[in-house]
Amino acid sequence: MMRLAILFARPLPAEAKVRLRLAVGAMAKTGRVRFVRGDHEAWVFAEAVPVRDLAEALAAEGLQPESIETTLDPDSDAALAEHAVAGERFKPIGR
Fold first, then answer.
1. In this predicted structure, what is the pLDDT of residue 73?
2. Is the pTM of this model over 0.85?
């Protein structure tokens, strides 16, 4: 299990928190989302999600984080992005 920290300049309003949860929840291999630091930061717990894929999912929902940090080293994150299955952003039904 890995953790991705999404940092925002301002606290997220309720509507943006819902959009973030929907964007993350639609991705394969993601777990829960936790908001910390007065809603300036969101932690996403996942199995194998590259930073690039998470950034794309957030951008599709209109969310612009300042940065996204991962518990993986840069080489491991790059390897995940390289081996990601094209088009597998959404969880198949029944998964």
1. 86
2. no
Q: Which domains does the chain have, with CATH numbers?
A: 2-64 (3.30.70.100)
Q: Give the 3-state DSSP-derived string for the chain, with helices as H, strands as E and coil as C.
A: CEEEEEECCCCCCHHHHHHHHHHHHCECCEEEEEEECCCCEEEEEECCCCHHHHHHHHHHCCCCCCEEEECCCHHHHHHHHHHCCCCCCECCCCC
pLDDT of residue 30: 86
Residues 6+ apart with CB under 8 A from 39: 8, 11, 12, 17
How many whole angstroms separate alpha carbon 81 and alpha carbon 63?
21
Residue owning tokens 């790059």: 78
Low-confidence ranges of the chain (pLDDT < 50): none
- List CB contacts of 34: < 8 A, sequence separation 6 or more: 42, 43, 45
